[in-house]
Specification:
eight-stranded antiparallel sheet, 5 helices, about 5% helix
């Protein structure tokens, strides 16, 4: 996975700027209220404007002379080098000073706290800055990469004016306020807007290193810590702004209200957006893993990974009392506080009711992070100061050495849920990056090939110690190409309603190439001993990234991301769909059982039923008057002469488009055929192993929800996929049989009430 730019909390609505565009920017004023962390630092920027082509002007500290502010520029083209008579800075780390630099033609004036600091005529012509301008805090300019040359300290307010202000106007400025007609061209007031740029001109922000907001200030930790903000540019080459700056504490602009309503209506009209399968409310769920599931005080909480426009990889947060209707919370975690984004992980509720999220800190050699929150709503999460609690030495990899100096490599990516046993905390980490580093080599040791997990323990959640590999892979179950990531490790109940644990544990996980799978086995002596293994996707990795919890009834409930995303998702305004919540339990034969949670039955309405329907070889029977794009169908079918029997869904009248779900009696497989489902998506035949017992009828439950089709067979097997019919009439439901006749003892269908808000 390549490194991505991560952006923080830009507003997604963009509208043309009213009035005259004030670019190119030549005469200007840069103003910042800053508190250097120390006076020995060198060549960092409190505020820089860069044209993206190696030209910049900025407020730089201690580059040519220690303890002195200067007007920095590319190769000092507009910088006065003789700074011996300029005053040295004396402010300590608790004191803010206002530094302003005014550019008027070739004249440069520097002011400290509204008083003269330096004046000179620049030795070269002024620089123009166009609509592609970039603003930085920390580094001097875009091409400066020395971590020792970044500003360390706090910034309370920063702004750029598109004119040359005089000394009196500068002295009258106050952080957090703008008075009169002197409006900034760009403005960051960190106390009330965080990292949002208040005019809406700079909508995208990249973070590097130790950057966070604290006590109403931007805090830069030095050592490369930088904020880079960019300006959205329209097709005409001019910058685009969002409506006037707004926040939780200011009026909502009319443009935002209109655009929000339009987005909702657009999503409601989307023919592929599910009505009762959870989908990301807006933006890009790519990747879109379910994460951080936990149950507390009567509410189910679930996090969803998505790439937030203007931010980066964040965890959205929803909660529900019934697993059907979900309330949206503020995002739980996102870039900042030492990481540049948050990838997959789990959740855990401690004995005192505090909830913890375990996640993979992005990018580079970060590691595993934890965040915590107290109820009842869990709206505010705090990342632990100890992060990374498991530190990577390489991306997703931690190197350790034994007493003889021999190196071993552990995974430090995709942490599992935490669990507690005998007063100790435990957590698993995934092995994809270790596998990529050493396990895929032709001569790699067998112990490093294929899927594995690493077990860590802690007494206080802040300090974690590696114990050992958690289980031993069996080559007859998985092959050497498969990794183990997105793990969930929980006790299995003995029935779908929960109750007492069965004594067995379930390890859900993915391999990136083959999707979701699991082990059932025994957990003892801090090791896992699998009894059996099976998969939840077979032809590709469409059913992906499992996440599970245990509720108050003792039920284990899981979700998974359906990765078959259509083309052009960015333009649709949303991306990311989950399979239905599944209840998991242990069967009498020691293997897994699964079914959709019972709460989904509350969505049923307009029931229709049929009895004793005989379908001849090659024939079909229509199930009329059922909402063909939002329904549930239950069918009990007797074993007869037919080689194949089941349903056609999302079918056009003449069969130009259709999705087949059926039982293959010869192959003893549950089959999903999407080869004629539409013009988009993965058009495949997926076959899941499934054998009926002697005398057993086939009991199918089929859920259709716009672009999602799920089938369940006898509580022992299931397939979930996405389809994208192109025809408006692909709404038909048909029973069919091939290679002989089939008797459908009873069929019941319901329309399904949408439960997503839009």
């Amino acid at each position: 996975m390549k490194r991505l730019f991560l952006f923080l909390f830009g507003i997604a609505v963009t509208l043309p700027t009213p009035g005259k565009e004030s670019l190119p920017l030549t005469d200007k004023t840069l103003v910042v209220w800053a508190s250097p962390a120390n006076l020995t630092q060198q060549a960092g920027s409190a505020l820089t404007i860069d044209d993206g082509q190696s030209h910049f002007d900025g407020i730089i500290f201690g580059e040519l002379a220690p303890k002195k502010w200067m007007a920095g520029s590319d190769t000092f083209q507009r910088t006065w080098r003789e700074q011996g008579t300029w005053p040295e800075e004396t402010a300590d780390g608790k004191t803010f000073v206002q530094i302003a630099i005014v550019y008027r033609g070739r004249e440069v004036s520097i002011y400290r706290d509204g008083h003269d600091y330096a004046h000179y005529a620049m030795p070269n012509p002024p620089r123009n800055f166009g609509p592609a301008a970039v603003v930085l805090f920390g580094r001097r300019h875009l091409d400066a990469h020395d971590p020792d040359h970044t500003f360390a300290g706090r910034i309370k307010d920063a702004r750029i004016y598109d004119r040359a202000l005089d000394r009196e106007a500068i002295a009258a400025l106050q952080p957090g306020n703008v008075a009169g007609d002197t409006k900034p061209w760009a403005w960051w007031s960190f106390a009330d807007e965080g990292l949002r740029e208040k005019t809406g001109r700079f909508t995208e922000i990249k973070l590097e290193g130790d950057v966070h907001i604290a006590d109403g200030c931007l805090v830069l930790g030095g050592k490369g810590a930088t904020v880079i903000t960019t300006c959205s540019v329209g097709d005409d080459g001019k910058s685009i702004t969002v409506p006037k700056a707004w926040s939780f504490n200011s009026p909502v602009p009319d443009e935002v209200v209109r655009s929000t309503r339009l987005l909702r209506e657009r999503l409601l009209a989307d023919p592929y957006r599910p009505g009762y399968h959870f989908c990301v409310p807006e933006d890009m769920g790519m990747p879109g893993d379910p994460n951080g599931a936990f149950y507390q005080d009567g509410r189910y909480h679930l996090m969803y990974l998505y790439n937030r426009t203007g931010s980066g990889f964040c965890w959205g947060h929803i909660s529900s009392g019934d697993l059907v209707h979900w309330r949206h919370h503020p995002d739980a975690i996102g870039p900042g506080n030492g990481d540049e984004g948050c990838f997959s992980g789990g959740a855990f509720v401690d004995d005192d009711g505090t909830a913890y999220l375990s996640y993979w800190m992005l990018w580079g050699a970060k590691g595993i992070g934890l965040a915590k929150s107290a109820g009842p709503d869990f709206n505010s999460w705090t990342k632990l100061a100890a992060n990374p609690v498991i530190k990577s030495t390489d991306w997703g990899v931690t190197e350790i050495k034994d007493p003889d100096g021999k190196s071993s490599f552990l995974g430090s990516a995709d942490p599992s849920n935490i669990w507690k046993k005998d007063g100790h905390y435990y957590m698993l980490t995934g092995n994809l990056l270790v596998l990529n580093k050493i396990g895929r080599d032709t001569n790699a040791p067998v112990s490093e090939q294929g899927d594995r997990l690493y077990l860590f323990t802690s007494d206080d959640l802040n300090h974690w110690k590696y114990l050992h590999v958690f289980y031993e892979r069996k080559s007859e179950w998985t092959d050497r190409s498969e990794d183990d990531m997105c793990p969930s490790f929980l006790p299995l109940p003995s029935n779908p309603a929960g109750g007492a644990p069965s004594g067995k544990h379930l390890l859900l996980f993915i391999s990136h190439n083959k999707g979701c799978q699991y082990y059932v086995g025994d957990y003892r002596d801090d090791h896992f001993f699998p009894d059996n293994h099976a998969r939840m996707t077979w032809v590709d990795n469409t059913y992906f990234a499992p996440e599970a919890l245990i509720d108050e009834h003792g039920r284990q409930i899981m979700w998974a991301w359906l990765t078959d995303n259509p083309s052009g998702e960015k333009e649709k305004g949303w991306s990311g769909v989950y399979g239905l919540p599944r209840s998991l339990w242990l069967g009498e034969d020691g293997t897994l059982r699964l079914q959709p949670v019972k709460e989904l039955e509350t969505l049923r309405y307009h029931e229709k039923s049929w009895n004793d329907l005989t379908v001849a070889d090659g024939a079909t029977k229509s199930l009329a008057s059922v909402a063909g794009d939002s329904c549930e169908i239950n069918a009990e079918i007797e074993v007869g002469d037919a080689h194949r029997y089941g349903l056609k869904v999302r079918a056009s009248a003449a069969g130009e488009e259709e999705t087949l779900v059926y039982y293959d009696a010869d192959a003893k497989e549950l089959v999903f055929d999407s080869t004629h489902s539409g013009n988009d998506g993965r058009k495949v035949v997926e076959r899941a192993p499934f054998a009926l017992k002697p005398g057993e009828t086939l009991k199918l439950r089929v859920f259709v929800d716009k672009s999602v089709v799920e089938i369940y067979a006898n509580d022992r097997q299931a397939i979930a996929r996405r389809v994208y019919p192109a025809r408006a009439d692909s709404l038909g439901l048909f029973l069919f049989a091939q290679g002989g006749g089939a008797r459908f003892k009873n069929v019941t269908a319901w329309d399904m009430m949408p439960s997503n808000p839009y």
